[in-house]
């Protein structure tokens, strides 16, 4: 079966099957930022943004997103230029092994889009569904806070 | 595996009835169970397009569509105002990603003894509306569950709506949950409390507990003890012992009998003390 889905702003026609998970479809099509982690909705490494909401792509069948719009990490830097959140992660040293990073950055994006200057508590809530097994949460939280502060300066 | 995407309830009902037919609501449990080879569905009925995502006021009642997400419930002014005990519970549920997908109907249908929406729905004495080709029926939530993962839903039925009465201003409530940690946790024990307060006297008390039996249960004897009692430290001390005797928890991967018993008493005590102190503060 074929589905039509807007990925990172580009309308795509993709071949899939009723039982294929969105995670598998995206990876098969080269969106490798979508990580295969626990595959049971716990770790958040496969997070994507679906119609503005953070969801886990291992818990969605691909045909369910037909006609919808999704964003993966690739969509944040279409021309290879780093997104401010990515830059903040680099500058704060918020990346260790990097496996959780795409999900973390998307969780941060959903938060910052709604709330450009989040408190530490709001940041922790926003990333509560994303596990970092290097346990580098301190720097991740700092990086997200830094984006908020940078945005503030630009205003 | 065949997936049906019906556009209305009538069409959806025509696909139900088969042995290996499963309903897809939020998918947060179903898709994991398929991946784990825990179930092998022959067909799946995706009920996303049935417009069952709503929260409405109807006179003294609140009607919640089965497909309403946990996040929508949490953000709802109506739920926050008229069913604060439910609002509090959904605020303690899952990760942002799960809250965006998971639905109230799914949380009920899965029949986990630790389901977070269920103890508050017990206290609200919610009715669950089921539809089938044979018609529709309403079942009280207290009669809905028959065991872990088991309920009274027939193969040709599915949950369309959850209905409960608005809470009123003389009603007091609390919801307490203990897990391994704060975020993304499955309850070791949860307790929802509701009742009416006049002065310091309690009435119409209802207490429901999660994760201490094969289904969510009412602690009826404990509630009866509190009815028409004045809230004092002594009463609270006594009732926190009664609840420990009333429940029959088990030891499992998440917790032990002893811990669950003690915590049932502690959670009830904590909640009742909070109510008592706020009454005293208001009166002085």
Automatic annotation (TrEMBL), chain B:
Write down the InterPro entries for this protein, in alphabetical order: CO_DH_flav_C, CO_DH_flav_C_dom_sf, Diverse_Substr_Oxidored, FAD-bd_PCMH, FAD-bd_PCMH-like_sf, FAD-bd_PCMH_sub1, FAD-bd_PCMH_sub2, Mopterin_DH_FAD-bd
Q: Tell me, what is one Gene Ontology molecular-function annotation carried by this entry?
A: FAD binding
Instruction: Tell me which domain of life the UniProt entry assigns to the organism this sequence originates from.
Output: Bacteria
- What organism is the protein native to? candidate division WOR-3 bacterium JGI_Cruoil_03_44_89
FAD-binding PCMH-type domain: which residues?
Answer: 1-169
Question: Keywords for this entry?
Answer: FAD, Flavoprotein, Oxidoreductase
A Pfam family of this chain: FAD_binding_5
Q: Which residues form a coiled coil?
A: none
Know the name of this protein? FAD-binding PCMH-type domain-containing protein
